[in-house]
Amino acid sequence: MTRTILPAAPGVGYKPQHFDDILAGAAPVQWLEIHAENYMGDGGRPLAQLRALAERFAISVHGVGLSIGGEGALDPDHLARLKHLIGWLNPASFSEHLAWSTHDSAFLNDLLPLPYTDATLSRVVDHIDQVQQALGRPMLLENPSSYLAFAESSWEEPAFLREIARRSGCGLLLDVNNVFVSATNLGFTPQSYIDAFPLELVGEIHVGGHDTDEDDHGAPLLIDSHGREVADPVWALLDYTLARSGPKPVLIEWDTDVPDWSVLAEEARRADEALSRLRIAA
Amino acid sequence: MSQTAFHHALLDATRPVPQNLTDGMGRPAGRRYAVYRNNVAVSLSEALATGFPATAALLGETNFARLSARFLRQHPPASPLLLQYGAGFPAFLDGIDGLGRLPFLSDIARLDLALRRAYHAADARPIAPEALAALDAETLPAARLHLAPAVQLLASRWPIVEIRAYALGERTAPPASAAQDVIVTRPGFDPLPLPLPAQGFAFAAALRSGMRLGDAVTQCGPGFDPAATLALLLANGAIAAIDTGGAE
């Protein structure tokens, strides 16, 4: 199988319950993203479905378990499993998160936040070097959604990601919903974040739904739940981003309370419209 | 701030929110930290509920949530492969007092786990049911039958196949109270729990250990007839290969 690239078109996060619908006709969806860890079993339906989908669609492998920001060493067993998956599937893209999830060999199944310091920066770069060397390809690193900040941080997130990419040679995955969530939660303007972001390094864009809560002071606290439609201001921020970045692969993420395929396809259609507006404007 | 401090307070809500976390505007993070606590607890609890569906159905939402919350704090996943998470959950349930009304619960959890392992096991093409009958009387006892990687064997003091079906609403008649040995097979992609005939567990376990067919029959004792178990194994795709390779 030859490696393709992700098309500058809508993709969706793949859920097994949509397998038949997708094979029956997925338009306008042109590519699919899977969570790496769900396809690390030895066989059975998950791998059979993935093989079938990979014959028809470009696949993006999105890891949620490497703990690239972890203080400890990367888990060599997990890296080996990832290398095996990337090896046989040869996907169009591999991405992971600027976050940590494993500590003292306990995997906490959440994307936990990092202080943006020089020490974190060099650790993350070392880990990305290790991943890219093991996989024999560059990866994309995704910006997190933040609920709090570290007093010790000395970097702004866009500059931090730019410097990681510069030192490691990785590309970036820009999650526009995460930008909106973090901006609301930490009190900055999302457009200024996009303006500061190295859009030329972006290989993929994510959008997804968020929930709304409140902090101790009654301020809105957005939760990156991936459990509903993309909010209108996030669609607007996608337009703002695409107008500056040019066409990119745009993924709809929907991971909890997963709806019928028709609902997801409608979200993909909205992403397709955003990309079409760009072509008309050009 | 170290990840150790962040980690410990995540799993123990009685610990204070770690220092030096802010809301981005200089105020303490406060309940913002609870978002991470909640994400960890809810996502791992959901992973357990997905991985142990019959156990969860028997306990009901509230009780399952309470037990899974205890389990995930004592035994957080040791790897990012959540499809393997909960191997220690049946033994954990064995240690819980107050489950007297559900004495079979840990065995149901073992069955849930066996079904999940079968679901993710390596693929194997089963032999045709006729392939065994085609062997002559001399070759047959010396043959070794390789069970498919998906095959799981369980012995229980309870009728766990029926209890599971009842718990999941696939059966309305309450289970009869009888011990049950169970084989999980995976003829296609869907694992199947099947009660084994008498002595079927010992026979299948002997085959899996690599024992020759004749020896496997003999060690099940005088009068054991393997026909019923063999028919069940063959009909449900549990045998992946026959090894007739040279007599010793």
* Poorly predicted tracts of residues of chain A: none
The whole-angstrom Rg of chain B is 23 Å
The helical percent of chain B reads 40-55%
The biggest sheet of chain B amounts to: 3 strands, antiparallel
Structure description:
The complex is a heterodimer of chains A (282) and B (248). Chain A has nine helices and 13 strands. In chain A, strands 1-2-3-4-7-9-10-13 form an eight-stranded parallel barrel, surrounded by five helices. A two-stranded antiparallel ribbon of chain A has the order 5-6. Chain A is α/β, with parallel strands linked by helices. The model of chain A has no long low-confidence stretch (mean pLDDT 96). Chain A is globular and about 50 Å long. Chain A has helices at residues 19-24, 45-56, 76-89, 118-135, 157-168, 176-186, 190-196, 232-245, 261-281; strands at residues 10-13, 31-35, 58-62, 93-97, 100-103, 106-112, 140-142, 149-150, 171-175, 202-208, 211-214, 220-223, 250-253. Chain A has one domain: TIM Barrel. Helix content of chain A is 41%, strand content 21%. In chain A, α1 (19-24) links the parallel β1 (10-13) and β2 (31-35). By secondary structure, chain B is mainly α. Chain B folds into two domains: 1-102, no CATH class; 123-248, no CATH class. Helices cover 46% and strands 10% of the residues of chain B. Chain B is built from eleven helices and six strands. Chain B has helices at residues 3-11, 32-51, 53-74, 89-94, 105-120, 130-133, 139-142, 160-167, 200-208, 213-218, 227-235; strands spanning 21-22, 144-147, 152-156, 180-185, 192-195, 239-243. A three-stranded antiparallel sheet of chain B has the order 3-4-5, with helices on both faces. Chain B has a two-stranded antiparallel ribbon with strand order 2-6. In chain B, β4 and β5 form a beta hairpin. In chain B, α2 (32-51) packs across α3 (53-74) and α3 crosses α5 (105-120). Chain B is elongated and about 85 Å long. The mean pLDDT of chain B is 94. Chains A and B meet through α2, α3, β5, β6 and β8 of A and α1, β1 and α2 of B.
